[in-house]
Write a structure and sequence with these properties.
Blueprint lengths: L1 E7 L4 E2 L11 H11 L4 H7 L4 H12 L14 E7 L4 E6 L4 H8 L8 E4 L3 H10 L3 E3 L16 H14 L5 E2 L3 H14 L5 H8 L11
Parallel strand pairs: 1-5, 2-7, 5-6
Antiparallel strand pairs: 1-3, 3-4
Length: about 220
């Protein structure tokens, strides 16, 4: 069974700002003020690509005395994904992009019985090397190459793409809540079109197809 590993940095999340590693730009502020002429704060913030909370904070800062300056930043964060060809999935927000963080998530899940493919992630490769797990580092974006068509991470790339598209209507989620959204999406993927109330109750009790012990 082949597991695929990927670390992503480009989710629409907010710690304070909408985009990781950047200040809110002047264009977003102008859009917010423009839409505020006709819309409430929540609607105007959404149209400007900001969260509702950020919209209210900017509104408050705009009305504050001039000597008070308002600035918002966010630290870069990383989300690790591992997924096998049958769809078993594990993901986690990493505190750091290093071997220890990857090991904390994948230890006992991805084992030497697996073949691990990753997209040039040094931390993932270090985890596999120390754990004696066969691994294959692929050039980004991790598609198959002619001499080794079975080694690829197309499955996890497709999952990552569906997750990002699903998150888009939320206009950014708080970083502290991202792990909950990841679990929500894993559950939806596992249930497919059969989302019965009993399945949700079982998942809330910690029993569900979305929970995987090994890949």
């Amino acid at each position: 069974m082949v597991a695929a590993g990927r670390v992503a940095e480009d989710f629409p999340v907010i710690g304070e700002p909408f985009m990781p590693g950047r200040h809110i730009n002047d264009h977003q502020k102008r859009l917010l003020m423009k839409h505020r002429q006709n819309d409430g704060v929540a609607v105007a913030a959404a149209k400007a690509g900001l969260s509702t909370a950020t919209g209210y904070r900017l509104e408050k800062a705009r009305s504050a005395p001039q000597e008070h300056h308002f600035q918002m930043t966010i630290s870069k964060f990383f989300v690790l994904f591992a997924r096998d060809r049958a769809g078993a999935t594990i993901d986690a927000v990493l505190p750091k992009l290093d071997r220890a963080s990857v090991t904390a998530v994948l230890s006992g899940v991805v084992t030497p019985a697996n073949q691990l493919c990753c997209d040039d992630g040094k931390a993932i490769a270090a985890f596999a090397r120390v754990g004696g797990i066969p691994y294959h580092v692929l050039p980004k974006p991790g598609g198959p190459i002619p001499e080794a068509p079975d080694w690829h991470i197309n499955n996890v790339n497709a999952y990552h793409s569906r997750l990002k598209e699903w998150l888009r209507p939320f206009h950014g989620v708080a970083t502290k809540n991202l792990s909950h959204y990841l679990g929500w999406r894993r559950t939806l993927e596992a249930f497919g079109h059969e989302k019965e109330p009993g399945q949700w109750l079982n998942s809330a009790l910690g029993s569900g197809a979305y929970q995987q012990v090994t890949l």
